[in-house]
């Protein structure tokens, strides 16, 4: 089965950190990412930019707005696709990710969501 894992963060808390502090935190993530990839269950891993364009259909037209449509300071910062036997296995693999492994994650509001994928098509 395929699972989409999305990672979230508190943008305000991340923006309070200096570039040096962020780089130091990201350096602590690397060993955890290597362990995640060593599982050989990660099919795709993406770090996402904060810049968001939202498209939706309204009154028979497509409208576009900037940013996520939420009052929350939380934004999606990453996404990865894993292949796992079941949800329990997917959670085990996702638990290797730095989001739940590094100490600073709690302070920065990092969290993961694991969702089964009902449809997956690989583009050739």
User: What is the 3D shape?
Assistant: flat
**Total number of strands:** 6
In CATH terms, what is the fold-level topology?
Alpha-Beta Plaits
Portion in beta strands: 25-35%
Estimated helix fraction = 25-40%
Mean pLDDT: 92
CATH-level-4 superfamily name = Dimeric alpha+beta barrel
How many domain modules? Answer: 1
CATH domain class: Alpha Beta
Helices, by number, come to: 5
| CATH hierarchy: architecture | 2-Layer Sandwich
Could you explain how this protein is built, in words?
- The protein is of the alpha+beta class.
- The protein has one domain (2-116): Alpha-Beta Plaits (2-Layer Sandwich), CATH 3.30.70.1060.
- It is 33% helix and 35% strand.
- The chain has five helices and six strands.
- The protein has a four-stranded antiparallel β-sheet.
- Strand 3 and strand 4 form a beta hairpin.
- The longest helix is centred in the N-terminal third of the chain and has 20 residues, at 19-38.
- The protein is flat, with a radius of gyration of 16 Å.
- It starts with a strand and ends in an 8-residue tail after the last strand.
- 16% of the residues are buried.
- The mean pLDDT is 92.
Q: Notable features of this structure?
A:
single chain; 124 residues; alpha+beta; Alpha-Beta Plaits; four-stranded antiparallel beta sheet; two-stranded antiparallel ribbon
Provide a compact summary of the structure.
This protein has 124 residues and is of the alpha+beta class. The chain has 5 helices and 6 strands; from the N terminus they run βααββββαααβ.
């Amino acid at each position: 089965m395929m699972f989409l894992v999305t990672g979230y963060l508190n943008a305000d808390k991340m923006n309070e950190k200096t570039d040096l502090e962020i780089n130091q935190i990201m350096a602590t993530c690397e060993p955890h990412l290597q362990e995640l990839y060593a599982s050989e269950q990660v099919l795709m891993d993406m770090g996402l930019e904060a810049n968001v364009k939202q498209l939706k259909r309204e009154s028979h037209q497509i409208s576009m707005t900037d940013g996520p449509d939420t009052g929350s300071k939380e934004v999606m910062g990453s996404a990865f696709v894993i292949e796992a036997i079941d949800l329990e296995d997917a959670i085990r693999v996702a638990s290797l990710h730095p989001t739940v492994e590094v100490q600073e994650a709690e302070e920065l509001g990092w969290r993961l969501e694991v969702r089964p994928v009902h449809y997956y098509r690989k583009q050739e």
